[in-house]
Amino acid sequence: MDPIEPSNIIFKVTTRTGSKAVKPISTENATYFIQRQGNQLIEYIFQDTDVNYRSQNFSLLSSHLVVDPIDMAHINPTSTSRPHTIILVNSDGTIAAYPFIRYQQVVSPSLWTTDGTFLTACDDFEEIYTVVKRNINGADVYHLEKFDYDFTTDAGKQFFGATLPGSTSVTGLNYLEGETVDIVRDDLALNKQTVSSGTITLDIVPTEYVEVGIPYVPVIETLPVETRLPNGNIQGFLKRITEVNLVLHNTQSLKIDTEEVSFRNLESLSLGTGIEFFTGIKTVQPLSGFTQDSTITLTQTKPLFFTLLGIEYKVSI
């Protein structure tokens, strides 16, 4: 074999999909980059069938989430229970998140918003840090924040152990001065309060922990019902969802359309105590009247934990 020299190097074009000036990410034997026009996330990977590299639109079914990104980051999982996640910081201040397990062809895109705008993001192995511009107490401020699965509020602060307040007053919230905040005390969501002089007041003295932060509301909406009957499809038919079965994991709060789902265990119900974590299947019925689309909206009214693993529903046509 001849040695590699400047005179015998050959460059071959394998894709003509241009890249935007945002640093690409390499993971899972593939390279991910933003298309030149800024409206696609491209996966550049070697295909055995073609014996060549191929560029394919990784965001094909969710391109509306990609808005001219200005930065990218990557969450590298450290356990089998978490996927790889690509973070795209959009120019409009939102984040398009792409959790995926590539070898199982699982992709679960979503849009992240906050009370402010995301400006940039960087990763430290399994952690993501972002700079957020917020308007606090009438002035623009810049926060360096970290995504954390143990928090259910934005720009949140937790008090526990040695920092747990010994009274009903929670101080040290000057960075949220004038903001209306969500409060969680010992797994119980309290009424929203406005931070004044860096302080809020609880209903009772906490025993385990307190979390205070800016509210955010998760929203999941299913696609319109579409299936086939022996005599054809049902598009244009009036449909009604009569029962929903939700597969949940460690969940404390959930609202389906207009119905609040209860997670209280009546056998151990005690006034003022926290909400129990629920893992299993919750069945809710009925949900809606007859419409042509029949979608389901899942959301929350309390800043508590919510993990949806799957959803199955029955439809009347």
Notes on the structure:
By secondary structure, this protein is mainly β. The chain has three domains: 25-133; 151-214, no CATH class; 219-316, no CATH class. The chain is built from no helices and 27 strands. Strand 11 and strand 12 (139-146) form a beta hairpin. It starts with 24 loop residues before the first strand and ends with a strand. The mean pLDDT is 89.
Give the topology, please.
Elements: E1 25-27, E2 30-34, E3 41-47, E4 52-57, E5 71-75, E6 84-89, E7 95-101, E8 106-107, E9 110-112, E10 117-124, E11 127-136, E12 139-146, E13 154-160, E14 169-170, E15 180-185, E16 188-194, E17 200-201, E18 209-214, E19 219-221, E20 228-229, E21 232-233, E22 240-251, E23 255-256, E24 259-260, E25 278-284, E26 297-299, E27 308-316
Antiparallel strand pairs: 1-2, 2-3, 3-4, 5-6, 6-7, 7-8, 7-9, 10-11, 11-12, 13-18, 14-17, 15-16, 15-18, 19-26, 20-21, 22-25, 22-27, 23-24, 23-26
What would a concise description of this structure say?
By secondary structure, the chain is mainly beta. It contains no helices and 27 strands. The model has no long low-confidence stretch (mean pLDDT 89).
The whole-number mean of residue pLDDT values reads: 89
Q: What is the ordering of alpha helices and beta strands?
A: EEEEEEEEEEEEEEEEEEEEEEEEEEE
Radius of gyration: 24 Å
**What's the overall geometry?**
globular
The number of E-state strands comes to: 27
**How helical, in percent, are the residues?**
under 10%
Number of helices: 0
Task: Supply the helix-strand structural class.
Answer: mainly beta
**Unreliable runs:** none
Intertermini distance? 69 Å
Q: Which percent range describes the beta-strand content?
A: 35-45%
The largest pleated sheet is described as: 5 strands, antiparallel
Overall tally of domains = 3
